[in-house]
Amino acid sequence: NMLADAILQYYQTLCKNNDVAFECLANLPQTLSIPDTDFSILFGNLLENAWEAASQTPENAYIRVQIQPQKNNIVAMIENSCKKEPIQKANRFFSTKHSGMGIGTQSARLIVDKAKGVISFEPKDEIFVVRFVLPNTVK
């Protein structure tokens, strides 16, 4: 998938140039059920959040990405190191860039909900994991 490849290439280069380990296992079909604009907002926001957190990690900074088809779904996991667990209230995360709520995770949640998928955010200790499943019925 050219769109996913472009987004992944961008963050891989950013990580390489800034001593953040980047591991990726990606195997997406060329065409997805979700519109390209929604996919780029979803995937781009989640990777941007991962990058921002990992790049502030003083040691052993990393981003790990897995995204691939499983049956009629696209299954993804983005894991990253983080200096501290993000502040969460009412199932929403506060931004580390400005006061108030972050819009990246909220827009990701809205896009996944619109596509009738599921998404979870799992902050634990110095690791943050996002998992999402999107229906993909395009053959």
Helix content: 25-40%
Q: Which fold name is given in CATH as the topology?
A: Heat Shock Protein 90
Shape: globular
As for the number of domains, it is: 1
DSSP, total strands: 7
Strand portion? 25-35%
Q: Which residue ranges are poorly predicted, with pLDDT under 50 across at least 5 consecutive positions? A: none
Largest sheet: 5 strands, mixed
The CATH class turns out to be Alpha Beta
Lateral arrangement of strands in the main beta sheet: 1-2-3-7-6
Proper CATH architecture: 2-Layer Sandwich
Based on CA atoms alone, the radius of gyration comes out at 15 Å
What does this entry look like structurally?
The protein has helices at 2-17, 36-55, 104-114, and strands at 21-26, 62-70, 73-81, 88-89, 92-93, 118-124, 127-135. The chain is built from three helices and seven strands; from the N terminus they run H-E-H-E-E-E-E-H-E-E. A five-stranded mixed β-sheet has the order 1-2-3-7-6, with helices on one face. A two-stranded antiparallel ribbon has the order 4-5. The chain has a single domain, classed as Histidine kinase-like ATPase, C-terminal domain (Heat Shock Protein 90, 2-Layer Sandwich), CATH 3.30.565. The model has no long low-confidence stretch (mean pLDDT 88). Strand 4 (88-89) and strand 5 form a beta hairpin. The chain has 139 residues and is an alpha+beta fold. The protein is 34% helix and 32% strand.
Summarize the helices and strands and which ones pair or pack.
Blueprint: H1 2-17, E1 21-26, H2 36-55, E2 62-70, E3 73-81, E4 88-89, E5 92-93, H3 104-114, E6 118-124, E7 127-135
Parallel strand pairs: 1-2
Antiparallel strand pairs: 2-3, 3-7, 4-5, 6-7
